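Example 3.2
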Amino acid sequence: MPVYRCYECSNVLCNDCCINHDKLTNTKYHTFQSTNDKMLLNNKFEVSNSIVDMKALPGGLLVIALFDSDKLLTYSVSDKQRNEISVGRLTKSIAILDRNTVVVMLKRGSDVAIVAIVDIRQKQVIQHVDVRLDLPIYPYIPMFYTDDQLYIRSYSGITVRDMSGTIDREIDLEFTLTDMCYDTKAARIYCIDYSEKKLICFDRDGNTIFTFTDTDLTHPQRLTIDNEGYVLILCHQNYEQNFKLYRTSPDGKSGEVIITGKLDEFKRTSFSSICIQGDSDEVVIGIGETVYTYKKKNERIKIG
C-alpha cells in the first residue's frame, strides 16, 4: 500500500520500498512525504546559507535573509531569477512594509540592532532607522509591521515603535516567545511559546484571546497566517530528521498536521522559516539551506 511520495522520482512507495529506496547511494537525498498530507511538495531549491527569515511579496517574489550575510536574496517563483541586495550589515529578520518595500532588522553590535527600509524593485536601501534596541542574542528576531508601527521581540515581550524609532509602548508577556505573526484582518497577534508547546493569541494591547495546545503540536518553531486566517506552525527539532506543518483554526478550537517531511541526516538544522504566497496560496517552507513550496492536492502539481 503506497504510504510515501518521492518528489524527485515522481512516484509513490510502500514503507518497505521507501526504506530500500533510501539506501540507494544516488537517491539518498531525495525528499519524501506522506501520501496522507493535505498539501503536496511542488518545488524546491537551494540557497547559499541557512535561512534566517523569509517573506513573500505579491507576484511570487520571495525575499530571504540568510545567516551571517549582509545581503538580502530575492527569488522569483515565476521565472526562477535570483538577485542580491546589499544592506550593509548582517540580517536578522524581515517585515513587509508594502508590496514593494520591506523592513530589515540589521545587527549593529553584539546585541544592538537598527532597521533598514529596502525597496525591493529598485534593489537598494532607501532609509536607515536607528531603533537602538537591545535584543536577545539570537540569529532571528521576530517582528512585523502594521499601522505605521513595528512590533519587535524584546527581552520582556514585544516593543512597539513608530517608523522614526520612537518607542510607543511595551507589551509585557509572561512567556518567552519564539516567533510571532500578525493577522491584519482579525487584528490579532499569534505567538509561539516553545517551552510549553503552545500557540497564544492576543490583541495588540496584550490581552489574551485564546491559548491552544495539542499532543501533535511538538517543537513549534515558526508560524504564519494563510489566506483563510488559519495559523500554520512549522515544527521540528534540530537533531531530528522529520518536520511537520501544523494548522490551527482561527478560533483556536481545532488543529491538525497537514504536511510532513523528512530531512537527510546532513541537513539537520535549527534554522527555519515559513510564509504564504498570497497570489497562488502556496505554503513556502525554508529549512536550513532548502526552500520547499507546497500546493493543495486538488491543484495541479509540478513534477521535477
